[in-house]
Amino acid sequence: MTQAILREILDYAHRANPYPLYEELRKTPVLHEADGPYVVSKYYDIQSLLHDPRVSSDARNLKSPAADPLAADAQEETALPPSFLRLDPPEHDRLRRMTNRPFGPPHSPRRVYDMHGELKDIVSGLIDGIDNPDRIDLVDQVSYPFPVTVICRVLGVPREDESRFHTWADTIAAGLDPAPDADREERDKIVHNARTELGMYLAGLIEERRKKPGDDMLSELASSHGPDGAMTTMEVLSTAALLLIAGHETTVNLITNGMLTLLRNPDVLGRLREDPKLSVPIVEELLRFEPPVQLVPQRTTLADIEVRGVTIPKGASLWLVLASGNRDPDRFDHPDRFDPERGDIQHLGFGSGIHSCFGAPLARLEAQLALSELARRLENPRLLEDPPPYRQNAVLRGPRHLPIACDGIRP
């Protein structure tokens, strides 16, 4: 049953609505068959494992990488070393602290807050640029260029280079996706090449910033000497690559899934149009209801761990299905209902524990501004395709395009 239901979840045919499959998955909270991964799908189990120091994010601790279709490629280290997302303490903690110094509290407490006006101007400009209200591709015209522009400004990456790193980012993100029928060796080679090319591109930018620092994170990462010392060049490279890719890939999905959900719930969309402050609870409920990251596959056990009577052995591959936990009826009342007024919403949309989403404050603000501005300015918006075409990726799930129409654009 494990392999059968996993194949269905990974099958593109179910991308538009995997939630009935997650419901089936929860009937056996810890699924395992043969030498495949252990798949955990209930909220409290996932939450516990995300905080368990016996669970590793370092693929080097995986006993049998070949058993996991999503195991980190051994070639990856020859392109760029693992980012802190793929490391355990103490290495993880040191690099995350160093990355956080120019980004958030306690050293830069207003970094995201002070971007509010700039972010609003960017999203307003993108909406101003919509020239044909009869057919709008929300992904291409708003929800992709918005976070890309933002992360480029934060990092100090030239926006005109977007077409170059877009291809690399898509390829690297696709490498996260389970593809049981694909040629793994060929796919690993393609991902490896993309990481190498991205690394070479960022190396050039880092050298420029060291010679002439600017007011951006790349300059600060390349030149900062805090209590933890300085990052090596390779650590700056892997951190910058992580922030560049993660800084827009998931936010694109959050905004697009959000607008799709609002168009399917016109009453909520109407309320948001009248009260932009509703964007805050709406985004939190979206992170539960349609999380941009559906599952966390690259985890490994450092010791035998028992979950609901099942022993997950040391060195096993562990998958945590966040989107399933977010719809667990043992945790949330009426979990399949989109309800922004939900009072208790400790969702798993940004993960939890030491690897909780580094960019969560920025992603929240971007989604709140994008959805409130779209609700306010699009007159009578409506879907042209439902369901829309989805990206292939089952891990980073979201529409590849979202065709909509409206009667006009309000000033």
TrEMBL record:
Family that this chain belongs to: Belongs to the cytochrome P450 family.
Stated name of the protein: Cytochrome P450
PROSITE patterns for the chain: CYTOCHROME_P450 (PS00086)
Example of a GO MF term: oxidoreductase activity, acting on paired donors, with incorporation or reduction of molecular oxygen
Protein's UniProt keywords contain Zinc: no
Residues spanning the signal sequence: none
Keywords: Heme, Iron, Metal-binding, Monooxygenase, Oxidoreductase
Alphabetical list of InterPro entries matching this protein: Cyt_P450 (IPR001128), Cyt_P450_B (IPR002397), Cyt_P450_CS (IPR017972), Cyt_P450_sf (IPR036396)
Source organism of this protein record: Streptomyces albiflavescens
Region (Disordered): 57-90
